[in-house]
Every structure is written in C-alpha cells, then in structure tokens.
Amino acid sequence: MRYPLVRAALAITCLTGASAALAADSNLGRDIAANCANCHGTDGRSRGMVPGLAGREKASIVLQVQEFRDGKRPSTIMQQLAKGYADAQIEAAAAYFAAQKP
Amino acid sequence: MRCSRREFLKAGAGALAAAALGACATIPRGAPKVVVVGGGYGGATAAKYLRMWSGATIDVTLVERDAEFVSCPLSNLVVAGNRQLADITLAYDGLEKWGVRRMRDEAVAVDPVARTVRLAGGATLNYDRLILSPGIDFIWQDIASLDNAGAQARVLHAWRAGPQTVALRRQLEAMRDGGVFAIHVPKAPYRCPPGPYERACLVANYFVKHKPRSKVLVLDANEDVQSKKALFMAAWDGRYKGYIEYRPNSTLVDVDVATLTAQLDFESVKADVLNVIPPQQAGAIARQLGMANANARFCLVDFLSYESTAQRGIHVLGDAIQIAPAMPKSGHMANQHAKVCAAAVIALLAGEEINAAPVIANTCYSYIDDKEVVHVSSVHAYDREKKTMAVVPGSGGLSPAPSAQEGIYAEGWARNMWGDMLG
Fold first, then answer.
1. pLDDT of chain B, 423 residues: tens digit per residue
2. Cβ <8 Å between A16 and B336
3. B55 touches chain A (CB under 8 A)
4. Three-state secondary structure call for residue B144
5. To the nearest 5 percent, what fractions of chain A are helix, strand and coil?
6. What is the CATH number of the domain that holds B258?
7. Contacts of B250 (CB under 8 A, 6+ apart)
8. Which one, out of B54, B97, B203, B231, has a CA that is 20 to 30 A from the CA of B149?
9. Cα B373 to Cα B367: distance, rounded to the nearest angstrom
10. Which of these, B266, B275, B340, B331, lies nearest to B303 by C-alpha position?
11. Do the chains contact at B30 and A7, CB–CB below 8 Å?
C-alpha cells in the first residue's frame, strides 16, 4: 500500500532541506549527518561537551573534517571517523548542518 | 487537533516544519501506522526519527513496558559507586513533542498476516510496518542452577540496567576487604563486547580506593579479550596490577549458588561477589515469530531496511539482530540501525526507492577509571556484493591511551545520544 501523503511530505522536506541541489540523492546530507548526531546532537544541536554543528558555515565544516581525515588537525576520534567518508558525503552533511538552526 | 489531508497538503513547507516540531503534532487521517516495540536505544530513536523525517505524516506508537529509560552505557559507573541510578535514568516525555504515541505495555503476540500486535494489557494495535527493538533475553537453561528467580537474585548479571545495577553495587559495598569479585563473560556474541572488561576496571578502581586487599577475577568463556584488548591489558598490567586477574577459556558449566562458586570446565572458583553475565538471544517477541533465524538466537535482517529475512513487514533493530562482521552489539549501533530503518520505512510507505548505500558509524567509550576513558570507533558501509555492512577500509581505530579528555567526550556522547533518542 502506498501513502501519497508521506510522499508529498518527503517532497516538501526535500525542497526545504539543505540538499535541494542534490536532487538525485536528496537525503544524502540528512542521512550522513544523522551519523554525527550521536555525539554532536540531533541535526548538530549539541547539548554540551562536544561542539555543535548546526548553523556553522559549510566550508568551515568541510575543511575541518578534511583536515581530520588527512591528519593535519589533531583529535582523539575524528581522524578515525573522517576516514570513513568520501568528499561528496562530507560536503552533503556539511551543507545539511549549515542549513540547520543552531 | 487533527490535520485533514487537504489542510496538510495545502500546508506547505513552513507549516510542515512547524508540524515536525509539534505545532501540528497530531496525525492526518488515513496516515500509515508504524508500531515500535521496545523503547531502548533502537526503538526510541526509530520512533522519533520516523516522526521527524516524515514531517509528522506517519502515525507512530511506541510500546514500552518500563516507565523510564535506564541506560546500559555508563551503568558500570553506578556499579562502581561513581554515579547514581538516577544519573542514567531518563523520562520518555521528550518523545511527546514529536507526536509519538507511547503505550506503557508489553507486546505479547504478533499476527504478521493480519498485521496486528496484541498487548498484555488487552489492546490490539494495527500496523502497516512493525519495528521490533526487543533487546536480549538471557539463556538461563545454559546455567541450570541459575534458572530460578531466587538464584538470580543472589548471583546477579546487572547486564540490563536497573534494579540489578543497584543490587550489584550493594553487594560490592557489603563485601569484606580481602574478598574476590568474580565476573563471568559469556561466549561472543553478547551485548556490549567491552562492557565486562570496563566493569572489571571500574570495580578495581573502587577496590584501590576503598578495599585495597580485594581482587577482581575475570572468568572469560572466550579465548581472549573481546574488545579494546591492548588498552584493557595495559590497565591490568599497570594501574590495576595485583588487583585484576584475567583467565581466558573459562567456560561456565554451572554455579553453586549457596557458596557462590563458579563451576568451570576444569576448576571451581569461589567468590565473595559472583557476577554472571549469561549467554544471550534475541528478545522473546522476535523469537516466537521465527525471526531468530541465525543459530536460533539472533535475527537476520536486510541491512538496507532492517526488515527481517523471515517476516515481511517486520523490522528488527539493535542487540537482537545477527550483526555484520566487526559490528558490535552496542547502544550506539542500535541508534544507527534505527535511523537507516526509519528512512527505509518512510520511503517504503511512500512507494519510493530506499537508500541503496547506507553508511553507519560506531563510537564506543569505556571508562578505565572514574575519569580516564578510551574509545573504539568504526564506519560501516553497505557491501552490495555480500549484502552486508563492511568496515570502510582505513576508518576507525582505538585510543592510544586512556585520557581525561576522552572522559569529557564520553559524557558529551551520553548527553547527546540520550537527547538524540529521547529529546
């Protein structure tokens, strides 16, 4: 059974989301960002002790994650996690966080 | 207040966002129904994300028998006297603002043809899709003398956080200085691979400070430490030298409850506090549906949707599933399963394609003492050929050494994780 209403809601979510430009895989940023939520908070709104990501500039998030991945920036865990993602995934997640209210 | 379908479709983006935040948190007529059974790391996350990501267009009911959530992660700090149970106990109220309907009840039977769930309290719920996050049941039959309530009240597991956690703390407080705390680790797979070794460290830390003539004995049914081996071994040979003894290949045959003696294959070990973590299997509701189709213990799933391979329309999350290689049974993983599952269920209900390339991650912190912490991390991507999740080459790893900085991050992990599932 199909539910047109859920489908319509998905379409609206896509249009309002940060990933409208990535129409082919419109949930990529949302889904990758959800991997970060466990430590950085839902949609990057942290409840403390770990930096929040919501509303930060896309370019600065991308740069920071790439520096973790390339070993240019010291960290405890981020250099290990950053190596699990391709550039397109990092960019999509960063765009999603940039579009969230802090 | 109810949103009619027409109002809803007219609503547009702004109202939709408001709906997602709860201004219009009731459900439109004719909305698809998803029932989630089990309000732990997997189930609570699935319930919230189904509402959040569907723009509140799915009717979500969470069935959970307990009034509050008690976290297994961090519960070893309660065992060691560093935290109170209240510190790791959270209300379910936060899910209300997402419009999750919560029923304090227990699912006792599922009819997968009629698509109904019967609850112990008498209600019957219809569903379009069912998500089971039932956690683990203990296989008591494997330890004959513990297969009764009296024995289980004396020889504790404390492997489900709650009253047992507090009871184990009381046993340790009552133990004489010079006593032996023995902990038995079952054969893998079991919930939280590093958990027993973390517990050994934290109890030893308590002994160092308060009962310095006492000792921790780790009786491991496995041939080696199951997680973070080098980091735990370094602590046992270093700060806890003389306090912790590790004995691999120590399969528990039975227990003499009266004398607190663990009967192993080749020897018997008497303890002052005996902590037996029993072998585990998927929760009963999944097993009775024939879904525990991996060694009759855990549930095989399609890792694109977490749908059972045995029952169409029923998804399984968390410790109850047969894990992919190098995927631990952890709360963090359950939360990640839940998000992939929620996204897939929303797509399936809308008649759309599901994500064919999901990526999930694990972060697991273990306390070496009350302040210093270590981690293991990994990123897992779907392997199309093998139809499983595989660690992304080069990703993940361990801490170089315990640190107070990671102690702060572990606290941040807990706050944000609990917020992500319940807030």
1. 344 333 333 333 334 444 444 434 456 678 999 999 999 999 999 999 999 999 999 999 999 999 999 999 999 999 999 999 999 999 999 999 999 999 999 999 999 999 999 999 999 999 999 999 999 999 999 999 999 999 999 999 999 999 999 999 999 999 999 999 999 999 999 999 999 999 999 999 999 999 999 999 999 999 999 999 999 999 999 999 999 999 999 999 999 999 999 999 989 999 999 999 999 999 999 999 999 999 999 999 999 999 999 999 999 999 999 999 999 999 999 999 999 999 999 999 999 999 999 999 999 999 999 999 999 999 999 999 999 999 999 999 999 999 999 999 999 999 999 999 999
2. no
3. yes
4. helix
5. 65, 0, 35
6. 3.50.50.60
7. B184, B219, B220, B221, B264, B265
8. B203
9. 4
10. B340
11. no
Upstream peptide bond of B112 is cis (omega within 30 degrees of 0): no
- 3-state SS, residue A42: helix
Structural domain total, chain B:
2
Radius of gyration of chain A (CA): 15
Same domain, B124 and B152: no
What are the tokens at B375?
């981690």
Range of the domain at B81: 5-137+281-356+412-422
Domain final residue, candidates B251, B274, B297: B274
- Global confidence as pTM: 0.92
Q: ipTM, 2 decimals? A: 0.91
> CA neighbours within 13 Å on the CB side: how many for B421?
30
Whether residues B127 and B148 fall in one domain: no
pLDDT of residue A10: 65
Chain A contact for B169 (CB, 8 A cutoff): no
- How close does chain A come to B392, measured CA to CA in Å? 6
CA gap A27, A43 in Å, rounded: 13
Of B416, B422, B379, the residue nearest B397 (C-alpha): B379
Which of 3.50.50.60, 1.10.760.10, 3.30.1330.10, 3.60.20.10 would CATH assign to domain A4-98? 1.10.760.10
Does A50 contact chain B (CB < 8 Å)?
yes
Q: Is residue B382 a contact partner of residue B365, using CB atoms and an 8 Å limit?
A: no
- Single-letter code of the amino acid located at B157: H
Closest CA of chain B from A23, distance in Å: 13
